[in-house]
Amino acid sequence: ICNCKGVENMHRTDLHDPAWTRRDVQELRRWAYAWKNATSQAEWDKIFMEHGVRWSELWRLPYWDPMRMGVVDTMHCILEGLIHYHCRKVLRIDAVVAKMKDSAGIAFEHDWVDYDARDCPADFLLKNPEAETHHIHRIQNKLVISLCDDDEDEDGSDAEDVPMPDVPDGNEPLGITEDQLFKALHRNNLTPLRWVAFSLGLDLRDAQTKADYCMKLLAWRRTKPRSGDINTFSPKTINLGHIKFIQRVISGTEKPSWVNSVPHNYGESNAGTIKADEWRTLSTLYLPIALVLLWGDRPMDQQSARFMGLLDHTMALFTA
């Protein structure tokens, strides 16, 4: 609805920038009709990717102006948007991440695009979303780990799930070699590799095999910092014990019969995709109970102040 569209403008806070202007409704109408008259999936995808518009029957109304008449979709904006992002990317309530060791081996932060079949071109849809969404998360986690030179790899480890290293005592965070990263990426299915590469906007015209997509991702990784700053290290917010505690709160809390249930194994990859109604129940019932018990009564020190700040921020979001 504005000219600052696209992934590259996510999380911008400079709202007084003159670039934040409404788009031309006539231009949108023209491309909406172009989408309607297109005859192939490739044309539909191209128009949507370049202009962010699809056909809607509302465009038949001569006065329709989505910039002025759009309604905030609270289900997708808050429940499946902000709360989903906060729990998964900020609090990191994820058993895969929780099982990893505390690490300074994160080289950089990246705002990953979450997989959503509704907005995904047909060529990049996952074949088995329930299982392969976990592969996407695993690929994304691998791509931000610090890289080290081949001769720094002492044990030649080739484990299936390359762990994040402990916080080192030396001057530079530990990492994995490019060869280890390639092998770790290659163990994932083809369609998750293809989708992650697509979400990064990579040129995939000559990519066909898993090795091709791994090389594309590795080339993208080389454009990012090889290692992070050890001084920026902070311990995980949620560990495996915390996730088990949240699961006990979910299974042990008595609730009215009209409150819908949520997966008792929430936080684990086999819990499946959390729906909007489940996010609402989690954020208004189970997570407030669990997080207050975990963080609300800690001895006052530097870490407890950090957790109290996280708790305050989380509760402010949950009450929005």
Describe the structure.
It is a single chain. With 320 residues, this protein is mainly α. 46% of the residues lie in helices and 0% in strands. The chain has twelve helices and no strands. It has helices at 25-37, 41-51, 66-69, 74-90, 95-99, 129-143, 178-186, 190-199, 210-222, 240-252, 276-295, 302-318. Helix 1 (25-37) runs antiparallel to helix 2. The longest helix is centred in the C-terminal third of the chain and has 20 residues, at 276-295. The protein starts with 24 loop residues before the first helix and ends with a helix.
Which helices and strands occur, and which strands form pairs?
Elements: H1 25-37, H2 41-51, H3 66-69, H4 74-90, H5 95-99, H6 129-143, H7 178-186, H8 190-199, H9 210-222, H10 240-252, H11 276-295, H12 302-318
List descriptors:
320 residues; mainly alpha; 12 helices; 46% helix
Number of strands: 0
Helix count from the secondary structure assignment? 12
Oligomer: single chain
Q: How big a fraction of the residues is strand?
A: under 5%
Based on Cα principal axes, name the global outline.
globular
Described by strand count, sense and barrel closure, the largest sheet is: none
Order of helices and strands: HHHHHHHHHHHH
Radius of gyration: 22 Å
Give the low-confidence spans. 152-173
The span between the termini is 23 Å
In round numbers, the mean pLDDT is 82
How much helical structure, as a percent, in the residues?
40-55%
Structural class: mainly alpha
